[in-house]
Amino acid sequence: MAEPRKSGLISHGIAAQNRKARFNYTIKDTVEAGIVLRGAEVKSLRMGRATLSEAFAGERDGEMYLFNMYIPEYQGGVLSRFDTKGPRKLLLKRKQIDQLLGAIARQGSTVVPLDVHFNPRGLAKVTLGIAEGRKQHDKRQAIAKRDWERDKARILKNR
User: Fold this and answer.
1) How far does Cα 40 stand from its chain's mean position?
2) Strand, coil or helix: what is 102?
């Protein structure tokens, strides 16, 4: 039996991660939201070419949007052009929007995207984190703890 052809596209699973978000922020809560994308944006995202490092979520006209998420143009011969860093609408219920806006207003938190993934049905979703910024000494402690965990695992492995 012949193997299925691998196209290099992501049908489900993580398409892009914001690794710096977990380092620069303390994540208090997470929310999963749908994201409105056009066809060429979805194709480019399925190729795993998105960047979330400068992205953030915010409110505009009572709706939540994702700003500064970079999705490069799809090079597959599609004529439709799109703004690579334009705002993208997030699909959330009103209760979730109120929860996010309340956390931003009350606690001085921010909403950062942690990852963009495709669920088992093939729909694009973004995981948002309600986050507080870390101080420099907290970042140093996180680095020291991570290094110690790595060294401890290495020592236990070599026993």
Assistant:
1) 19
2) helix
